[in-house]
Amino acid sequence: MSTAKYTSTTYNSREVRIIEADPEAVAVEKISGTVMNSGKYGVNGTFFNNSNDFLGIAVNRGTGIGGNATFNAYGQKRRGTFYSYQKEIGNFRVQEVANVQKLSDYPTFPNTNYFAIGGLNLYANLSIDKTEFYRRLDVDEGAASVNDVINKSTNGTYSDPSLRARTAIGINSAGKIVLAVFKSETPWGMREFMRSKNCYQAAYLDGGGSSQMRYKSGSTSGTFDPTGVARPVYSMVTVNPTSWT
């Protein structure tokens, strides 16, 4: 039996919507349009060019959901990827963010029943300052090619980029996967929020017009599209629990 819970809150006086779910209720799926019209619950997934050309890892039960979905940036960037799998020895669930170029860079074999979704590492497990955080995104993950992530001056100083809608996935100390959609936040603000939710591993998924959520609250379904763009996103982190609490 698995459960999920939806909540709404504010952080830095800005709106955040959250789904917390048991890992066994979470998967990665390909969709044909927006999260809001998918008929599924969850949030948007990874970066993409078009409906069958993914720029980030999007894998369910070990299989890519579409074109190039077993690579981050066609295998050219080593980026934060959230893995969730059932460990064969000991039969327990493991969630971890690893910086990889391709799915097989992270040694999940012979473990089973796993999903993986690519983005950027939020380094929630590390005690680092804002400058080091952005340096890692820039130098280690090549995040300058992602909209509104890196803001670097001519003298090499990092600062927050502009506020925008963003999406994150993490695992907290209670063993729940946390999915968060921010109406308007910076990458550093996202990281700090996920840490405040006791997430020790977290990744930044696609953002801007792609940030979307569909949730269930009581007996009512709802949606959150912070930008109002209703952009087709093609990959989704879905939540399908036995019950919503």
Fold and architecture overview:
With 245 residues, this protein is mainly beta. The protein has helices spanning 130-140, 187-196, and strands at residues 3-11, 14-21, 26-30, 42-44, 48-50, 53-54, 58-60, 63-64, 79-87, 92-100, 112-118, 120-121, 151-152, 158-159, 164-172, 177-185, 199-204, 213-217, 220-224, 235-239, 243-244. The chain has a seven-stranded mixed β-sheet, covered by helices on one side. Strands 3-20-4-18-19 form a five-stranded antiparallel β-sheet, with no helix packed on it. Strands 8-7-11-9-10 form a five-stranded antiparallel β-sheet, with no helix packed on it.
Which structural traits does this protein have?
245 residues, mainly beta
Summarize the model shown.
The protein has helices at 130-140, 187-196, and strands at residues 3-11, 14-21, 26-30, 42-44, 48-50, 53-54, 58-60, 63-64, 79-87, 92-100, 112-118, 120-121, 151-152, 158-159, 164-172, 177-185, 199-204, 213-217, 220-224, 235-239, 243-244.
Outline the biggest β-sheet. 7 strands, mixed
Which structural class do the helices and strands define? mainly beta
The number of helical elements comes to: 2
N→C terminal distance: 12 Å
**For the residues shown, what is the average pLDDT?**
95
Number of strands: 21
